[in-house]
Design goal:
alpha+beta, Aminopeptidase, seven-stranded mixed beta sheet, 5 helices, 7 strands, globular
Length: 176
């Protein structure tokens, strides 16, 4: 897409990113989960400001409008926002650990327009430039089609009940 731009997120973007994430969770997950699972998802999803501070989180704009966000991480946390229990911020070893793809969200108004793919490509290239040979992610059921289409392979199906109701997730891996 010629009008798609991608840049690193800044702290000034945080309010808009949080609003986009809420909208994406509400709309996209409602297509594949029941209302209780969607509500529970809010505990395991959301903004991890460490990604912004690390310079590994991207904003995508189309025609000057916020279309999506997401990124990658050189830290051990696989998924979750600042409020999610079990975060592990220690640095990964590129020689043996996969980098993480993190916090991917697309505005429903811009779904299926290349937003997610652009973020994945930018994150994979940045991880590769830092010496990582693989990337790993935890996919929601609404994200599975994108990740499969971009070459990610399922490794493990699991649930997270941190929000009270188990939410299905799929750990996926890709060589970069």
């Amino acid at each position: 897409m010629t009008d798609l731009t991608i840049r690193l997120a800044t702290r000034a973007d945080l309010p808009a990113l949080i609003a986009l994430m809420e909208e994406a969770i509400t709309v996209h997950l409602a297509q594949v989960l029941n209302p209780d699972e969607v509500a529970s998802s809010r505990m395991i999803m959301g903004l991890d400001t460490l990604l912004v501070d690390d310079g590994t989180y991207f904003v995508v704009e189309i025609g000057g409008e916020l279309a999506g966000c997401g990124g990658w991480s050189r830290r051990n946390t696989l998924y979750g926002g600042d409020h999610t229990p079990g975060r592990v911020p220690e640095l990964l070893n590129p020689a043996k650990d996969p980098a993480r793809v993190r916090a991917m969200y697309t505005s429903p108004a811009f779904a299926r327009r290349g937003v997610g793919k652009a973020i994945l490509e930018a994150g994979e290239a940045a991880a590769r430039a830092e010496g990582f040979t693989h990337v790993q992610l935890a996919a929601t059921l609404s994200g599975l089609p994108l990740y499969r289409a971009c070459g990610y392979q399922p490794v493990e199906h699991f649930t997270d009940a941190s929000g009270g109701v188990p939410v299905p997730l799929v750990k996926m891996l890709k060589a970069v």
